[in-house]
Amino acid sequence: MNLNQELQSLNNRLDKLRRKLAGAEERGDQAIAGQATQEIETITKKINKVKGRTKHALNKQGSDVKSLAFNRPLTKAEQADMGKLKKSVKGLVVVHPMTALGREMGLSVVTGYAPKAF
Hints:
This protein is mainly alpha-helical. Helices cover about 70% and strands about 10% of the residues. The chain has 5 helices and 3 strands. The chain has a 3-stranded antiparallel sheet with strand order 1-3-2, with no helix packed on it. It is elongated, with a radius of gyration of 22 Å.
């Protein structure tokens, strides 16, 4: 299971437990409410761990991309014919600003990273 699927399943479990807690409090069942509260705390900790691993992976990937020797913003024509550009430039990595990696790197335009100038 990858990190996104794990995070989604944990969020689903957390949502179910919150509904269970609300129902138990509405009925006045303290035993079930206490158990649900403890489970919510443990799942919240797990979610934070998974988010930390995701952020670490993005930081590592971003530093790998930034370590490439050359980068520049891509023109609209190059973006339109991305296949031709990727065939002509060996090792090209294109980062869009709206992806998780692009947001992590703080980009504002589509940027290409490559080991050599293109």
